[in-house]
Structures are given as structure tokens and as C-alpha cells.
């Protein structure tokens, strides 16, 4: 027996197998997943496993390695989230999402940090050795809502699209803030004195980390799209590029201390459209399926490991600190959501209702990211207390909040996701309104989201598609082809009936149908000028779309539109509709 | 910049990316792949990369790690090969394949080993310190034909199915022999004296290694099939099980020093049929696509690494030894194929032509397995010579033989693979002949392949399918349902016309159509015995298939066949045809 030799892959495979079998097991009993979220069940399995390992070995079971989590388990989930992100609601609410993600998270970090510092001043609690900086550091890791936990719970409760994207988008985009604040406070902890310059550098850093992530992600995304232009002959490795480039974007961002989550989401959202157009249908099925499968396995492993890591002797128990952490997490989130929403609602017609606000506040679940961050803390004498508090917060949010959120959604009658897809009429209506609003915004000089969307679409069709799409050699849409055919037929009929204006545009039209004598007679009566004029008329009517009215086009003046422009636009519109 | 942190995944991703981009690059020029096999181009890329690394670092580039090769790169290729193995030609030629794989490889090992030992006795060559055992050890690693190299070359030349399966099957199944002989000679090298017991133990070990591999593979395969019975509610992780179980079978076999290649092939061939029936169509597309993608990437990486590893200072050059190694590899393979084929042809009607024999001998390519094995050798003073000789043999076979085999196939006009799929007529004909031959073999008492195939099919439908397939609750085939419906209709018509034998089988048939008086009159005239008899006749005619002749069924006597038996058989036949 040579176990050493195969140990690493064997154990990895066994863990994945265990996770998959656990998933199958839950679904065998249909009742169970409808009451308890899968994440809770998986943590429970993990707890049992951890207990068994602890009982057998008599030492703490292995803790989920932070490196493994951030390098291997998190990327598939975030990639899946980014690739299947509904882009319309996301961009419609991007302002609100960013407000929650940035201001909300900062609010939570400082709120939790300062109030816990206040608790530490109470002598009876014996916590006076926990400094303000340590409390803020703890606040920075415990404040952020976890995308994995949110996804696992919100996937099952089917709230309306806007509410879902608000919570989920926040949980994804707060990564940039978390990364900056966590690293900032951690370096502050190690510094002897803190200058005000450092604080301002931290604020500046946030923009670098966030926007840098977006830039890295988009550049890898466009490279991926460009690469798939050339895979026509080897379809079989097409899906690979989607995974490779997005993973590289994540790793590159992590390497430069940028936000990896933001990078991989930008990459996925940036490439999706072009990659889908370039790769074959089967490749696309594989990409979609494999992404779902991979993220599902990662997700399962994370929750099982969370459970396993909970068991052991890493914890220092201090009732007041742990209880107040849970309470402050709830209070500050609720306050933050209330304040920020009242601010947001002032500028929007489509306001966030108080029911939605409650679910947003209540859906602020914490998960594996906090857990990995707390283990990454530098060693100091109260680290075990922080680990205990983090574990309790995670278990509290996942178990108590995760299990009660579905009944609460039912009880409050929160607006649900509509089950049916929008009808064609609705889709046309939405698209019509988009164009109308873009036009209104342009005329009124208000640069709103529709204006920018329209600009982006123009940039996309003018430059990006030409570079990134394989078959962008202006294929005529079927409606244009049909029109040409009908026009040609009509012209032939007219010509045959002898009613085409002053006569046939070209003798070749008739040479086969009429007798040679009439043909020659006609040709004799036409002077070259008339013939040229007719050919011009025919050419315009035969090979172009007839303009039935003064076309409104904001990018070209009425006179200078090229003949291919319109064909292209029709094509793009059809493409979008498809 | 924090490169250390992401180094491992980053470099792996970059290597895969390089491999994929190289593949795309070759296919951009359509001329290139039709002249030079892709494997040669990839080795060439590897050589250049190795040269660059060597030039920049001034030290040998990293050698392909044998562990990485055997644990991560080889399994995907073998899994792909096993999963897409055409089972009919494989099992039809299993005897010949095993003969080539077992006897042929042993022949080559001893032939090459002893003749190289002869060369070592020539004083002028300065090789007298290479012992017989070392030569045999070298023979054991250089003798085996490499499945990766064979697949890469034969995939492109499209020889006929039988020729392909002979070379390819041999290259897969010789793994068991190679493993045993290599480990045997390696342990002999370290032993002070060799007893004859050890030699016999070696022979016995071969059966353990080969059959053990088959057993491990089949048990994992059937477990995989059984697992996919329960994935109906979570389609998304279905493809995972195919990969997990087959990889586990490989690792388990390696752990017990059995043949991993044989195990993974048995696993793939064992589970394919049931897994395909259980999983959804999209899962199946994903499995197929991902397997192809993965094996393609592995394949590319192996050839690139082969090239990279060639550069460096691992080599000790000795002209006579290296030249004679190449010559002996060619001669002994040619002789072996000639002798074994003449033996095989004596027992077969469908003989292997001399052209095919030439291609089998010439297609004995060596590849990455030899290369990894030679690096796994224990350190001794002539190891570098062996490395050099192995490298030359691999490059010679891949470049010279790989590039000339296509022109030779054209020149000799070797029978090619038929382009079109067999017609329905042909398929029916083949299937008819199968049944006919199984019957003839059964009657004549000759237990040939058709007899065993039939037995296996019976065992499969009787036990395996019931356990492993999800929906095996005897769905009646549409032809049976139609027949029942027609029979029922016919019976009703006959009953209405009053022509059903001596009268209606049961009064309820007629109560709605006839008047009560006639009904009662009829009932009066029938005594209970006649009624029972009629009911029996009706039951047989209505709900069973009418037997039009004495049915031949080798598993049941004419009298005792159950009514569902026949429905099942029709179903299975239809299923196989589909």
C-alpha cells in the first residue's frame, strides 16, 4: 500500500465526493430542503464530521486553509455569480448597490468597531486589553456581507429581482472595501504611530483597489473574447478560455493587492456577450453547466469546511463580547440600511419599500470570507476570542437568519420574483421605452443611465464587436434579404408589364422575355442619360431599404447615413432581441 | 506585488494557457497540421521554450515531474480513451490485443534487454559496466508503446477501425505488463541475489496487477452508475461523478500498485452505458465535451513538457548504445508483430494483412510514459545514458515515424476508416448475424465470443440494469402497447358482431351494447366451465403477445416464460437499436 504517493489528489477527490454525496442525500428527501437551507445542512454535516475527527484523533480537526479558500474555492462561485449576473437590474441599481457596498460597509465597520470598543471599556467584562485598532480590525472583517452565504439563501427564497440584486450586488462589491479596510487596520496594528497621511492613503487606496479590479477584469475579459475569435477549428478547447482568463484575472488582481472578486466579476460580465457569440452552442452548454457544477461543489465544500473548522480548541469564550458582537452586527446593519435607503429613496421614483428594507437588513449574512480573514489575522493574545466571535456570528446569521428569512418573506408578503418570462409585447415595450428615454435624455441634455447605455451600445457596435466577434463581416439580416428579393421580383414584373417608369432600367432585364425586335426598339428610343438615371433609381430601390420617413438617428445627420449602416442596425436590433 | 502568494495556481494556469494558445496557433494555418502531426509541433514548441529557459537561467529547465505526469496529466487522457472506446471492435479483437499487449511487450522487453546487453559486451563501446539487469530494466521501460503518442498520431491518419483498435488497445493494456516488469527489475537491481521464487512471484503478480485493475475499475464504475440513479433533483453535479469515480479508481489502483490505466479504462467502459441512461442530455454533453477538452489539454501539456525536459544537462551521450537502442526497438517490434500475427492469423478467418502488420509495427510510438519512468529510476552511474537513449527513442518515434506514417499509409493504400455511418440495413444485418451466431454457438456447444456476449447481455438485463438504472420499472415498448390496443379493439368488434368464439368472455363486455334480454339469454346458456375457459383464452389474447410459433429462448424453456419476459426482451432489443 502506497498511500503517501496519492494522498493529495486522493483526499481532495474524497472531500469533493463527500460534498456531492451530501448534496444528493439532502435532495432525496424533498421535505428537508424546503424547510432548512442547504447551507445549514452542510454546516451541520461539517460539524458532525469535525466531531468525529476530533473524537478519533483527540486533537482539533484541520481548519479550512485561508489560501485554499481564496485561491481555489472562492473564484468558481464568484465567476458563476458574475457570468450569470442579470445585467439589466444590476446596472439599473448600480448606484444604490455601490452606496450600500461602500458607504454601508464603512458605516458597519466603524459602527461595530467603536461600539465594541465601548463594551471593552466596561471593567466587569475583562476586555480592557482589546485596543480600538483591534476592534476596528475585527469590525472590518465581520462587517462585510458574504456573497456565498447570501447566494445560498436568496437562491431559495425567490424574492423580487430588485431586492435580490441589491443584497447580492452589495455582497459582491463590498469586497473592495473589506480588502482595503482589513489591510489598512492590519498594517496600522503593526505600526508604532499612525500619521494622518496613512489614513488619506487608505481612502485613496480604495479607489485603486476597486477601479484597478475593474480594469484588470475587463482587460482579461476582452482578451478572452478576442481569443475565442480564433477557436473555430478547435471547438473542444473553447470552454477552457472562459475559465482560464477569468481565473487569471482573479489571480492577477490578488497579486497586485486589488480586489479579486471585483476583477473576476468584471471579467465575466465583460466577456460573456462576445464569448457567447463566438463559441459553439455545445461549448456554451459546457461552459454554463461546468460553471454551475463547479460553483455548486465549491459552495458545498466551503460550508462543510466551515462546520469542520468550528469544532476544536481555537476558541476563547467571552459571553459579553460575543453577544454584543451579534447584537451590534444586527443593529448597525439595520441602521445603515434605514439611513442609506431614506437617502436613496429621495432620488428615485421607484422607491425601496420598508418590507424590502427589512429583508435587506435581515439578509446581511456572514460567511466563509469573514472566517478565512479571521484566521489570517497576525497572532496576538486575543485572536482566539475573535475566532470564537466570528464563528458565532456566522452560525447565528446562517442558521437563525437563514432559516427564518423564508417564513418572514412569506409573512410580510414581500414581492416575489415573477415566475413567467416577460411576453414579447412587454419586451418590445421595455425596449421602446429605453430608446424613448435615451432620446429624451439626449434632447434635454440630462446624461442619465439611458444616455450612457446608448453611448456604450454605440461604442460596442462601432468598435468592440468588430474586434471581438468572429463573424462581423456585415451579414445581411433575413429581412433585408427578403426585401431585396421582393423588390427584384417586383421590378421584373413591372418590367415585363412594361410599366417600370419610362421603361426597363437595363436591356438585360428583358432580353429573355421579349422579342428581340421590341427590345431593340426600346433601346433605340433611350438615350444614355435616361438609362443612367434609371439605373440609379433601380440601384437605390433594389439594394437598399426604402426610407419611409425622416429617420431619427443621433449618431449621423439625416443625409450622411451609409447604406450599410441601416442594415447593421437592423441586424444588431434583431441580434439583441434574439 | 505578492507573487509568492498566487505562484502555484498562476503558473499552472499560464502553462495551460500557453498550451491552448499553441494549439490555436497551429490551427490558424490549415496547411501545417495536415503535414506535421500536432505532437511534433508541440514538442518543437517545448524545445524552443526549454532553450529560452536554459539560455536565460543558464541552468537546465525544470524536468516534467513524474508524479505530476502520472497523477494529473495521464488520467484525463486515459479516461477519455476509455470512455470513447468503440466497444464492439475492442471486444471482437480482445484476444489479439491482449496477445500483443502481454506477449508482445514481454518479447520486446527481453529482446531489447538481452540484445543491448550483447552490445555492452563489445569492449570498444565502453559499456561493460551496464549489467544485464540494468539492460532489462531499461528494456522494460522502453519497450511499451505509449497510448498518448499513439492516440495523437493515429487520430489524424484515419486507418481502418480494426487496425486502430489493435495498436491503441495494445498501448493501453500493456500498462499492466510494464508496471510489473519495471517494478520487478527495479527491485531485482536492489536485491543482492535473485531466487527463482521471485521470478515466479513476478509472473503471478502480472495477473494480480491486471485483473486487480479491472476489478477496481469495474467496482468504481458500477458505484458511479449506481450513484447517478439518485441525481434526478440535482442535475448540475451529475457530470462530476463521472470524473470523481474514475479518478478515484485510478488513484486506488495506483495506491495498491495495480495498473491505474487498466482500472480507469474498465471504470469508464463499465459505467458509460448506465451513466448515459441515467443522466440528462445536457449533463452528458458536458461530460463528453469536458472529457475531450481535458484530455486535449493534458495531451498538449505532456508534449510541451517533453520538449522542455529534453533541453538540459541530464544526458550522457554514447553513440553505439543510443543507436542500437533505436535499431533494436524497431527490429524487435517488427519481429514480434510478425510472429504473433502469424500465430493469430492461423485462428482467424478475418486475417491481419501484411500492410496492416507493417503499420502495427511502425506505429509502435514511444512517449511520455517511458520518459517519466526513466526519471523515476533509482540513481546509478549510468542513469543519464538511459535518459539520453529514452529521449532519442521518443523523439525518433514521434518525429520520424509520426511524420512518415501518414505518407506510408497513403502509399501502401492501407484500408481506411469508412467515412459514412453504417446504414440501417447494415446495422440490422450485423445484429441479426450476432443473434444467429450466438444461437449457432449455443447449439454447437462452442463457447465463443457471441455466446459470452449473449450471456453478459442477459446478466445485464436481468440484474445490472435493475440495480443501476433509474427508470427500470418495465416500461412497455410502444409496439407492445399498440398491439394490446389493437387486440382489445379487435376483441370488442368481434364481441359486438357476436363472432367471438362461442360467445363473450364476460358479460360486462356486452352489457352496454346489447339488450338486457339477449345478455341474460346468453348467460343462461353458458355454464361456468365454459366461461372460465373463455376468460382464459381472452386473457391470453388480450394482454399478452400472441406466440406465432415455437419461440426460441435459450434462457427459459418453451413453457415457463413469464408474460413480462417477452415484453422486456423486445424493449431491450429496441433500446439497443436506439
UniProtKB/TrEMBL annotation, chains A, B:
Pinpoint the Cation/H+ exchanger transmembrane domain residues. 17-409
- InterPro entries referenced in this protein's UniProt entry, alphabetically: Cation/H_exchanger_CPA1 (IPR018422), Cation/H_exchanger_TM (IPR006153), NaH_exchanger (IPR004709), NHE-1-like (IPR001970), NHE_CaM-bd (IPR032103)
Example GO molecular function term?
sodium:proton antiporter activity
Q: Which residues cross the membrane?
A: 12-29, 35-56, 68-85, 97-120, 132-153, 165-185, 206-227, 247-268, 289-307, 319-347, 359-380, 386-409
Entry annotated with the keyword Transport: yes
Q: Which family does it belong to?
A: Belongs to the monovalent cation:proton antiporter 1 (CPA1) transporter (TC 2.A.36) family.
What is the protein named?
Answer: Sodium/hydrogen exchanger
Report which gene this protein is encoded by.
Answer: Slc9a2_0
Amino acid at each position: 500500500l502506497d498511500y503517501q504517493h496519492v494522498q493529495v489528489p486522493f483526499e481532495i477527490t474524497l472531500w469533493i465526493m463527500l460534498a456531492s454525496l451530501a448534496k444528493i442525500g439532502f435532495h432525496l428527501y424533498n421535505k428537508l430542503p424546503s424547510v432548512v437551507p442547504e447551507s445549514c445542512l452542510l454546516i451541520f454535516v461539517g460539524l458532525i464530521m469535525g466531531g468525529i475527527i476530533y473524537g478519533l484523533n483527540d486533537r482539533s480537526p484541520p481548519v479550512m486553509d485561508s489560501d485554499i479558500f481564496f485561491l481555489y474555492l472562492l473564484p468558481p462561485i464568484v465567476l458563476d455569480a458574475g457570468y450569470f449576473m442579470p445585467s439589466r437590474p444590476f446596472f439599473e441599481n448600480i448606484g444604490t448597490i455601490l452606496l450600500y457596498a461602500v458607504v454601508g460597509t464603512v458605516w458597519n465597520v466603524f459602527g461595530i468597531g467603536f461600539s465594541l470598543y465601548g463594551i471593552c471599556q466596561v471593567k466587569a467584562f475583562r476586555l480592557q486589553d482589546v485596543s480600538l485598532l483591534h476592534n476596528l480590525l475585527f469590525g472590518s472583517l465581520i462587517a462585510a456581507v458574504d456573497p456565498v452565504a447570501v447566494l445560498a439563501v436568496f437562491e431559495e427564497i425567490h424574492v423580487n429581482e430588485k431586492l435580490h440584486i441589491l443584497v447580492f450586488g452589495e455582497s459582491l462589491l463590498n469586497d473592495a472595501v473589506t480588502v482595503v479596510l482589513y489591510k489598512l487596520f492590519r498594517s496600522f496594528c503593526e505600526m508604532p504611530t499612525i500619521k494622518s497621511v496613512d489614513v488619506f492613503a487608505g481612502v485613496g487606496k480604495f479607489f485603486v483597489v476597486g477601479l484597478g479590479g475593474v480594469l484588470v477584469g475587463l482587460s482579461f475579459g476582452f482578451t478572452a473574447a478576442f481569443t475565442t475569435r480564433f477557436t473555430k477549428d478547435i471547438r473542444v478547447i473553447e470552454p477552457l478560455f472562459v475559465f482560464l482568463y477569468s481565473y487569471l484575472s482573479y489571480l492577477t488582481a490578488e497579486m497586485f493587492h486589488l480586489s479579486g472578486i471585483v476583477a473576476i466579476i468584471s471579467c465575466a460580465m465583460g466577456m460573456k456577450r462576445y464569448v457567447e457569440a463566438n463559441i459553439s452552442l455545445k461549448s456554451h452548454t459546457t461552459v454554463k453547466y461546468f460553471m454551475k457544477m463547479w460553483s455548486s461543489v465549491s459552495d458545498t465544500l466551503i460550508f462543510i469546511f466551515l462546520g469542520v473548522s468550528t469544532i476544536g480548541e481555537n476558541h476563547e469564550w467571552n459571553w459579553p463580547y460575543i453577544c454584543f458582537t451579534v447584537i451590534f452586527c444586527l443593529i448597525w446593519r439595520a441602521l445603515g440600511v434605514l439611513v442609506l435607503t431614506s437617502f436613496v429613496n429621495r432620488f428615485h421614483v421607484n422607491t425601496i419599500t420598508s418590507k424590502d428594507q427589512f429583508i435587506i437588513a435581515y439578509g446581511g449574512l456572514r460567511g466563509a470570507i469573514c472566517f478565512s480573514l479571521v484566521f489570517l489575522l497576525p497572532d496576538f493574545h486575543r485572536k482566539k476570542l475573535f475566532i470564537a466571535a466570528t464563528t458565532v456570528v456566522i452560525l447565528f446569521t446562517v442558521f437563525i437568519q437563514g432559516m427564518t428569512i423564508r417564513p418572514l418573506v412569506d409573512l410580510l408578503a414581500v414581492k416575489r420574483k415573477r415566475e413567467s418570462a416577460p411576453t414579447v409585447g412587454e419586451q418590445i415595450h421595455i425596449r421602446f421605452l429605453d430608446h424613448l428615454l435615451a432620446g429624451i435624455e439626449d434632447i434635454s441634455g440630462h446624461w442619465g443611465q439611458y444616455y450612457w447605455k446608448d453611448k456604450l451600445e454605440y461604442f460596442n457596435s462601432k468598435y468592440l464587436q468588430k474586434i471581438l466577434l468572429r463573424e462581423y463581416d456585415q451579414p445581411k439580416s433575413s429581412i433585408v434579404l427578403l426585401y431585396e428579393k421582393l423588390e427584384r421580383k417586383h421590378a421584373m414584373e413591372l418590367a415585363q408589364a412594361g410599366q417600370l417608369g419610362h421603361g426597363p432600367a437595363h436591356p438585360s432585364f428583358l432580353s429573355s422575355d421579349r422579342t428581340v425586335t421590341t427590345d431593340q426598339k426600346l433601346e433605340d428610343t433611350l438615350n444614355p442619360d435616361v438609362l443612367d438615371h434609371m439605373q440609379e433609381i433601380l440601384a437605390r430601390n433594389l439594394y437598399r431599404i426604402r426610407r419611409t420617413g425622416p429617420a431619427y438617428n443621433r449618431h449621423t445627420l439625416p443625409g450622411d447615413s451609409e447604406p450599410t449602416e441601416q442594415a447593421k442596425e437592423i441586424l444588431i436590433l434583431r441580434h439583441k432581441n434574439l
